Task: structure prediction
Amino acid sequence: MLSQAVILVGGQGIRLRPLTLEMPKPMLPVLNRPFLEHTIAYLKKYGFDDIILALSYLPEFIQDYLGGGNKLGVQLNYVVEDTPLGTAGAVKNAEQSLESSFMVLNGDIFTDLDLADMFTFHRSKKAKVTIALTRVDNPGAFGLVETESDGRVRRFIEKPSPGRITTHWINAGIYILEPEVLNHVPRGINYMFERGLFPLLLELGEPVYGYPFRGYWLDMGTLEKYLYLNCDLLLAKVISHLIPGLNRDGVYRKADATIHPSAKITGPAIIGSRCQIDQTAHIKGPVVMGEDCHIGEGAYLERGVLWNGVSVGAGASHKRCVVYNKEGKERVINCGNH
Result:
């Protein structure tokens, strides 16, 4: 079985601004834990204990928080790019540490894909690269992957116009690679898997396969999707390996949270440490509240994520939103109709 993985966590998370102006995207809180911790727990479940993080944007934030990985039960190593090197370039930067077949994950993907089964498929096909594929209803915004009946990749189509859509299977941002394919990646320049290495390998006749799966897959790259993920986890649409055991009706509160007897809380909800919920406040899940939050008298909160230290004023009403604290003031980001 595989033991090494590279997580690509160098992006600036532009579509998630303003949340990512001072925090890298992989560190955004999901169920009150950094998203990256969920990814590492997912990898650990499948036996990955040697994980390389490819960093670029605000690298110290991640390094200082995670350290060597001991608290998470894995060994973490870091490669830092001075300038963005692209998806393949970032992995090339870690080449000297990669000893055999290894996994690569985009750092903003949450999924329940069976990595062990994907590796069995990869070995059975004697593939140089295996690309996880997920099916989407509207594939025009993604990179399409056409395959033969046995899974061998025929061609890639990047963000096609409606008339060029030939399949609904897209690149899911999860790969198994044999280390020798990195010989084709130029060192020190921006180079992509999707538009560089993978099409080149097809031209060279190398065995590149697609592994289709129909489980949960979400790219947490936008504000709406960030809210979706927190809600989906609370609604038990997908299981976190970091915080197992959630169910769609539960209210999970820290022992030192203070909730007035007249407050109404409809789960699922997570209420962080030292939170205070005042009289006649109404919380309708799915809702995640970080530490030290205060919900004022008569306030209403529905389908939202509150970061640490947020205060919702008396009588205020927030729906489908992310609320964070900036310089002592609450900022509310509305997140669509999910």
